[in-house]
Specification:
The complex is a heterodimer of chains A (about 220) and B (about 270). With about 220 residues, chain A is mostly helical. Chain A has one domain (about 5-210): Up-down Bundle (Methane Monooxygenase Hydroxylase, Chain G, domain 1), CATH 1.20.58. Chain A has six helices and no strands. The N and C termini of chain A lie far apart (about 45 Å). In chain A, about 40% of the residues are buried. Chain B is an alpha/beta fold and about 270 residues long. Chain B has a domain at about 120-190. In chain B, about 35% of the residues lie in helices and about 25% in strands. Chain B is built from twelve helices and ten strands. Chain B has a six-stranded mixed β-sheet with strand order 6-7-8-3-9-10, with helices on both faces. Chain B has a four-stranded antiparallel β-sheet with strand order 2-1-4-5, with helices on one face. In chain B, helix 6 (about 140-155) crosses helix 8. Classes of the chains: A mainly alpha (about 220), B alpha/beta (about 270). The interface of A and B includes residues 74, 211 and 212 of A.
Chain lengths: ~220, ~270
């Protein structure tokens, strides 16, 4: 007779909620760059409004996790599964906040043409999305190789971030009247760079989940 | 996979490998112990060290040999006629299976508390002085001191000091179990063996016994068999996981309950079998 079937089901529910939050953040991040590219203020407002859904899911995950600890008194990997879910939820919720921040920058830039095509920003964004998506499946499958590959991608985002900021600084010297927009675009770069760091944290949490030890994947 | 990246900190490991734990004296050293009930090989090649002033928990599913092992430690197992053993259990450096080792001498040093409280059908006072009387103590004043000291040691004195002549059967289950612990303390043992001492007790009595174990380990070495894994996690310094007569894993309790090495240990403590 299988034992702790109910608990295993509850852990699956927790995992499902976390994946829901992850996919919500992915979508929000995608839409935020779409809004930025198209100067779509309405979409930006919608992203801001929808963020409450992420917050509700985040709270649900926390409440559910705490209830599971209280009811099931988990130890070892079971306990790590729950603790790691709480930690990953915190990172993902932050990523969803970055989507809101990008939406706010989009609103501040308004209908004004971009000082340069946002090619690098879109590249950073694409890598971030791949990282987030892969990290969610790495979590779901408890796949360390995949988690490590995700963390490695962070370097590409960091490089693009460095290049873009240098570019934007140069333009700000040439077109000082456009510094407000350049500042907003720099913020967007920073949000994406930070989002990638949070995904790297998720990889570290997956390592902790599987190995029971803390690993630093940020080097 | 561990070659992928290096661990961030060794801090977690250093908690698990507390040097002070290793520096302690060993009370018992079990070497290649095998035990058979007739043809049933109940304990297989057991190697296990019990340390001074620690609580060692023994966990494992029913029939894994944990009670057999603890009963071997005071040679109670010899009361089963068909038992054969090989290997050694050294208590303070002497093999307890040595023919010259008197079992009475051993049991003076090694007290035992059982699953069900088993006070004698006598007064509270008489229960405590039973052992010391057998050892020839007759002086009423000395016996009174022993009663007070033992009952205080078992955290029962305040509850019974005004009714020492009452029958022990009138006490609650939790009080009876602490009386049995007091009876055990009265002979001033070195080691206390506890075979599921709280499994017949209510939650509050259980916590009282657990608190008591924490206090007693300052003066005694305690070995406790328990089916309650949270209890093992709460009160013990080291935990041995027994399965099918073998020790699968023996390590610091923090390690066993956070990151055990053996998959079978993990499956057992997380409740996936047993």
């Amino acid at each position: 007779m299988p034992v702790r079937e109910k608990f295993d089901e509850e852990l699956a529910v927790l995992r499902g909620k976390l994946l829901d939050l992850g996919h919500f953040a992915e979508n929000a991040l995608s839409l935020s760059i779409q809004a930025l590219e198209n100067h779509d203020i309405e979409l930006a407002l919608e992203i801001m409004e929808n963020d409450t859904k992420a917050n509700i899911l985040y709270e649900e995950i926390n409440d559910y996790a705490i209830l599971l600890i209280a009811k099931q008194q988990p130890v070892a990997i079971d306990l790590r599964r729950i603790i790691v879910a709480i930690k990953i939820a915190t990172d993902i919720e932050r990523i969803a906040d970055f989507a809101v921040n990008i939406a706010k920058s989009t609103i501040r830039i308004g209908k004004e043409d971009h000082v340069k095509p946002i090619v690098h920003i879109k590249q950073m964004h694409a890598i971030c999305l791949t990282m987030l998506n892969d990290s969610l499946s790495a979590f779901n499958e408890e796949d360390l190789k995949k988690a490590k590959a995700v963390a490695d991608m962070d370097d590409e985002v960091d490089d693009l971030y460095g290049q873009t900021i240098v570019d934007l600084l140069r333009i700000s010297g040439e077109q000082s009247e456009r510094i407000p927009q350049i500042t907003q675009l720099s913020f967007v770069c920073r949000y994406l760079e930070r989002a990638a760091d949070h995904v790297t944290n998720i990889s570290e949490h997956i390592f902790y989940l599987v190995k029971g030890k803390q690993f630093d994947l940020n080097d | 996979m561990s070659t992928l990246v290096a661990p961030k900190k060794e801090a977690a490991d250093s908690i698990f490998n507390d040097k002070n734990l290793h520096a302690k004296n060993k009370v018992y050293q079990t070497k290649e112990l095998n035990l058979w009930y007739g043809s049933n090989h109940a304990l297989k090649q057991i190697n296990l060290d019990i340390y001074e002033n620690e609580v060692t928990a023994i966990i494992g599913p029913s029939g894994c040999g944990k009670s057999t092992y603890i009963k071997a430690l005071n040679r109670m197992i010899e009361m089963v006629p068909s038992v054969k053993t090989s290997g050694e259990i050294q208590y303070r450096g002497r093999n307890i299976f040595d023919k010259r080792y008197g079992v009475e001498e051993l049991r003076t040093k090694v007290g035992m508390v059982f699953q069900k409280p088993n006070p004698f059908p006598k007064s509270i006072y008489e229960n405590v002085v039973y052992g010391p009387r057998i050892h020839g103590i007759r002086d009423k004043k000395v016996l009174n001191q022993i009663v007070e000291k033992s009952l205080k040691g078992a955290a029962l004195w305040d509850e019974v000091k005004d009714r020492l002549q009452d029958n022990a059967y009138g006490l609650s289950g939790g009080q009876q179990q602490r009386l049995c612990i007091a009876r055990c303390l009265a002979i001033e043992p070195d080691v206390i063996l506890m075979d599921e001492p709280t499994s017949a007790l209510d939650p509050i009595s259980t916590l009282k016994v657990e608190e008591l174990v924490q206090i007693l380990k300052k003066e005694y070495s305690i070995i406790i068999v328990t089916h309650n894994m949270q209890q093992a996690a709460r009160i013990s310094d080291r935990t041995a996981f027994f399965l099918n007569g073998e020790v699968v894993e023996f390590a610091e309790t923090d390690k066993i309950f956070s990151n055990p090495t053996d998959k079978r240990t993990e499956d057992y403590i997380t409740g996936r079998f047993g």
